[in-house]
Amino acid sequence: MNSKIQLKGITWGHSRGYVPMVASAQRFEELNLGVEIIWKKRTLQEFADKSIMELAHEYDLLVIDHPWTGHASKENMLVPFDDYLSAEYMQDQKSNSVGKSYESYNFQNKQWALAIDAATPVAASRADLLEEMGLKIPESFDELIDLAKLGKVGFSLIPVDVLMSFYMFCCSLGEEPCQSKDYVISTEVGVKALKLFKALSDLVDERFYSKNPFMVYEDMVNNDDIVYCPFAYGYSNYSRHGYAKKTLTFHDLVTLTAGKPMISTLGGAGLAVSSKSKNIELAVKYAEFVASPIVQSTIYVENGGQPGHLAAWQNDVVNANSKNYFKNTLPTLQNAYLRPRYYGHLYFQDNAGDIVVDYLRYSKDEKNVLESLNKLYKESQDK
């Protein structure tokens, strides 16, 4: 009979999401005899879609997407870490946030997850192919268009990523989305953003309408036609020797206006503890371990993780093992836009991307697209 205290966790099924959790659990078990932590994985789409309400009844530990924080707060399905961890520890987490990663899990002055993973759309290139073809990394949006005209550019065009990219174009034009309760974005900026987005997407192969970010990277490392991805949620795994047939080099985004890099939409993942767990204090202790600066800079990142603690991003050894992925893209993370987290926003996020994809594929009127987004946005606020 197993006399160990067992914790169950759920994360997403990529090397970046699953392997570091298993590795950290193994080490935690060695340091805390009598504990067993079992991690299961779900798809990236399920990671974004499946309700925390469902998962919190089944698992002690949940790796979550930050737009769930408003939902989690209202439903009291997660444990607020402020009530369990020391003020010193929480201050270290806040002070060493990668961009707004820490803030993204803070809602109504409570911390519903620890930012163990930081990500935002960044640029990626096949340096070997660029050199071979005599091409250079684009620095401006106009140069990006020129490269795309050669058929050398690809990025994710699935609905959720298209919505995040639409937010990016809006932010880069000087206006953050969802600042008003009446509309997603002003008509002037929204029309400009859509037209710029379509000008680029029209030059990208149709196959990218079925690829999420890591599928784009898999395409780039396993084939030789796409040399540059201008924006997709970063996966440092693809910059590490031995992970794939070829390695990618990651960069900040191209400039759009006034010589400033584009502003992408924050992603990442947080580690949360279910309020339904029978072993809350032990689960919190494990989360504290995973998010600590030493584990983030060693066990976590060494096993494929993409840490959420700034110490790891600035660590020379970590960067030497990833072609400076972290140092190269840190400015992008620091500038990233924090999307809404109110209770009903997931309803908007789940459906708005389809509207923008439909526009990109079938050339609908921009103002009608914005009207459809605004209608959905207002509906989401009543959820």
UniProtKB/TrEMBL annotation:
<dbReference type="InterPro" id="IPR050490">
    <property type="entry name" value="Bact_solute-bd_prot1"/>
</dbReference>
<comment type="similarity">
    <text>Belongs to the bacterial solute-binding protein 1 family.</text>
</comment>
<dbReference type="Pfam" id="PF01547">
    <property type="entry name" value="SBP_bac_1"/>
</dbReference>
<dbReference type="InterPro" id="IPR006059">
    <property type="entry name" value="SBP"/>
</dbReference>
<protein>
    <submittedName>
        <fullName>Extracellular solute-binding protein</fullName>
    </submittedName>
</protein>
